[in-house]
Amino acid sequence: MDELQCPACGETENLVGRENGDLIEVTCERCDQQWDRDPHALPTCHRCDGNDMEGAVKAIVEKSRGSQLSIVATQVVYLCRICDESILASYRVGRSPLMPDQLPTQ
Ligand SMILES: [Zn+2]
Ligand SMILES: [Zn+2]
């Protein structure tokens, strides 16, 4: 496992971990992003079976009035540095949340 990194802002130093059952709840002191980390199960790519994964923040969107989509929450997902290389490359530039693969249509 390489070093812990905040999936939202890329911070690697000011991260605080707190045990929460089997999981470690990590909080980034720079941007307040919180996520859970399972110390017993590394995230694994279901396509190549590799575990060279990098966290990213994905938006959960809902359609609000009119046709505007608004971000209602974010979740941390893990992308494969091999299979998702191009997504990660563009994510690292601005670190704005990834949009869901499927947008709500109603
Ligand atoms: Zn952060
Ligand atoms: Zn992969």
Please describe what this structure looks like:
Helices cover 9% and strands 37% of the residues. The protein has 106 residues and is mainly beta. A hairpin with a 2-residue loop joins strand 1 (15-20) and strand 2 (23-28). The chain has one domain (15-94). The protein has a three-stranded antiparallel sheet, with no helix packed on it. Strands 4-5 form a two-stranded antiparallel sheet. The termini are far apart. The structure holds zinc ion (2 copies).
The helix fraction, in percent, is under 10%
Radius of gyration: 15 Å
Given helix and strand content, the structural type is mainly beta
Distance, first to last CA? 41 Å
How many distinct helices? 1
Residues in β-strands, percent = 35-45%
Oligomer: single chain
Largest sheet: 3 strands, antiparallel
Silhouette: globular
Mean pLDDT: 91
Side by side, the strands of the main sheet go: 1-2-3
The molecules bound to the chains, other than polymers, are: zinc ion
Encode the helix/strand succession as letters: EEEEEH
Question: What is the domain total for the residues?
Answer: 1
- Strand count: 5
Enumerate the spans where pLDDT stays under 50 for 5 or more consecutive residues.
Answer: none
In a few lines, what is going on in this structure?
This protein is mainly beta and 106 residues long. The protein has one helix and five strands.
Annotation keywords:
globular, two-stranded antiparallel ribbon, 9% helix, three-stranded antiparallel beta sheet, 37% strand, mainly beta, binds zinc ion, 1 helix, 106 residues
